[in-house]
Amino acid sequence: MEGSNAFVEEICSIPGGELIRLCIQCGTCSASCPNANKMDHTPREIIAMARAGMRDEVLSSNAMWRCSSCYLCTVRCPRGIKPTDLMHVLERLAVRHRLSTGQTPTPAMYRGFSDFVYSIGNVPEMGFMTWYYFLARTNPLRALKMMPLALSLFTHGRMSFKARRLKPKAEQQLKAILDRAEVLGGMR
Amino acid sequence: MRYYTYFPGCSSSDGGAKAYGASLQAVAKALDMELIELEDWNCCGSTPYASTEELASFCASARNLALAEKRGLDMVTPCSSCYVVLNNTTARLKEYPELRAKVGDALSAGGLEYHRTVRVRHVLDVFANDIKSQEIASRVKRSLAGLKVAPYYGCQVVRPGPGFDDPESPQSLERLIEILGAKATPFPLKARCCGGSLIISEEDLALDLIYKLLRNASEHMAECIVTVCPLCQTNLDVYQSRVNNKFKTKFNLPVLFFTQLMGVAFGIDDRVLGLEKCIVPAERVLAQYA
């Protein structure tokens, strides 16, 4: 296909990714994005770069990790591209190729969240936050900064120390499904 | 009596938004609705799982749908993220045969099948469209007349859609607020982003967005904000003091779940509604009216 390259082919092989071919570079996505000013490349640029075959530059960008999935671009795109889904596709590819950026802790945060889903089928906020602020990050100052907030959540009865667990049989069922998914082409 | 399968999601079950789940159940009961919790549901995966592991995230989500399908009822959820993720799963499975085959294969490892028939609905949709407004109005026991409420939708309850309301200028919440006797204030940013889960990893980015929302609600004289999403409530309420620190502002806007406001109007006990769980206290503002 004219204007195609291996990277575009790879994007197109993931459901939702194939729509990248329809982009007319109008910039409606970038203009609608609440976080475009915090990205190293705007959504429109990312699409242009991907179509120019700039795989490593695209996958090591912080753009997709700073997408907050608000879907404003998606409902406005005149070509029906669903740029939000495209950002998710790029995130998965960045993980697959181990190119996810070190400029933002979002990939690590997402990974931790996903590990909770995989291991217990549930994301207990208390456990997740403890993991994120104390175990995943090496900056103790940041954890310290979170203490007043944690205390206020606790005193307002918004912290559960006991994680909800699925019944053992249900947990095994979920694991069997997710393990099978891995064999079938997951990335875990 | 109306029956629904209920998918609480992590936050509204026993997480930081447990007041959402509790107030929802209390209000549903008052309106003769029965929300039957899906047994042994698992986390929908939300954006993080979908962003890192494609197939597994669809499978985790599909397990819930397969379990719900056996019951043959609409499945309602109070969480905007669960709402989008679960519906997105069904849509993708319909659209992509190859994905459908793989997810079907994985589900069979757990003895499940999913035929893509479950309709997942947000609780706002249910209250706005299944229950007649007279029915809701007839349950109102405490007048909220004069209370100025900013209706905050956030993003995923109306986008990507197509859903039950306009993707950029929805009206369901305003109608509900007016049925309760309160006043919905204009709120131009009502369907704009609060930063979502990036509040954890990119706090500064999210605080900028939250600041804009709080400022916009304040400028239109709102005395409180109501939300339809656990994460929106957390960001606007729990992080309000952080916004004040960062922007040298003095916002003091209570942020309620819309089901809590309904419960207050219905005369349900504050403790049942979990009003004391709001970090920015809501009782004083409400006491002036209710």
Compile the SSE list and pairings:
The complex is a heterodimer of chains A (188) and B (290).
Chain A: H1 6-12, H2 28-32, H3 43-51, H4 55-59, H5 72-76, H6 83-96, H7 106-120, H8 125-136, H9 140-155, H10 168-183
Chain B: E1 2-6, H1 9-14, H2 18-30, E2 33-37, H3 46-52, H4 54-69, E3 75-77, H5 80-95, H6 97-108, E4 120-122, H7 123-129, H8 133-139, E5 148-151, H9 172-179, E6 183-184, H10 198-201, H11 203-219, E7 224-227, H12 230-238, H13 240-247, E8 255-257, H14 258-265, H15 270-273, H16 283-287
Parallel strand pairs in B: 1-2, 1-3, 3-4, 5-6, 5-7, 7-8
Helix pairs in contact in B: 2-14, 3-4, 4-5, 4-6, 5-6, 7-9, 11-13
Explain what this protein looks like in three dimensions.
The complex is a heterodimer of chains A (188) and B (290). Chain A has 10 helices and no strands. The longest helix of chain A has 16 residues, at 140-155. Chain A is an all-alpha fold. In chain A, helix 7 (106-120) packs across helix 8. By secondary structure, chain B is of the alpha/beta class. Helices cover 51% and strands 10% of the residues of chain B. In chain B, helix 9 links the parallel strand 5 and strand 6. Chain B has helices spanning 9-14, 18-30, 46-52, 54-69, 80-95, 97-108, 123-129, 133-139, 172-179, 198-201, 203-219, 230-238, 240-247, 258-265, 270-273, 283-287; strands at 2-6, 33-37, 75-77, 120-122, 148-151, 183-184, 224-227, 255-257. The model of chain B has no long low-confidence stretch (mean pLDDT 96). In chain B, the strands form 2 sheets. In chain B, strands 2-1-3-4 form a 4-stranded parallel sheet. Chain B has a 4-stranded parallel sheet with strand order 6-5-7-8, with helices on both faces. At the A-B interface, helix 5, helix 6, helix 7, helix 8 and helix 9 of A face helix 1, helix 3, helix 4, helix 5 and helix 6 of B.
The run of helices and strands of chain A is HHHHHHHHHH
How far the N terminus sits from the C terminus of chain A, by CA atoms, comes to: 32 Å
Which ranges of chain A are low-confidence, i.e. pLDDT below 50, for 5 or more consecutive residues? none
Low-confidence regions of chain B: none
Task: Classify the beta-strand content of chain A into a percent band.
Answer: under 5%
